[in-house]
Amino acid sequence: GTYAQGAVQVRQADAAGSTSEVAELPGGTVDTTVATPSLALARDTDISTTDGITNDGKVNVTGLEAGASWQYSTDNGQSWKNGTGTSFTLGSGSYAEGAVQVRQTDVAGNNSDTASLLGAVTVDTVAPTIEISSTRDTVGAGKTEIITFKLSEMSRDFLREDVEVTGGTLSNLR
Description:
Layout: E1 2-3, E2 9-10, E3 23-24, E4 28-29, E5 38-41, E6 53-54, E7 58-62, E8 69-73, E9 81-82, E10 87-89, E11 93-95, E12 101-105, E13 115-116, E14 121-123, E15 130-134, E16 147-151
Parallel strand pairs: 6-14
Antiparallel strand pairs: 1-4, 2-3, 5-7, 7-10, 8-9, 8-12, 11-14, 12-13, 15-16
């Protein structure tokens, strides 16, 4: 709370019963709380911008008090790392809901509650690849050939329009 100058007075007495003059504390504020910080992915880069899948592991931290120190955890609070600035970066991998957390300690030594990212997060920084193969090197006019497209990871939107064909046609893409 806040108190005015003179509201807190101190006097000392010794064993012989002598007392000192009264001393007054200047007015001030007793800081006993600190806000809980917030955190969010800087960019959810997947097709859905709210599914927690991204190739950018940057997490923004907001609600930090001036001069406060803060820490983050990526293992549900088992271990903590000191944060700097207003962000940190998650490494590639999957993080369960609640695993990514932050907390702060203000200049008065008050510790905040812990905040967590909402939802699970997957940071995928490896670009997908595609392998194209055929059982023959060349296909004659009027002949049919099976072309295989092998994707390194699941695709939600690999379409016929994604394939450029020269000197022939492509049909029955499945």
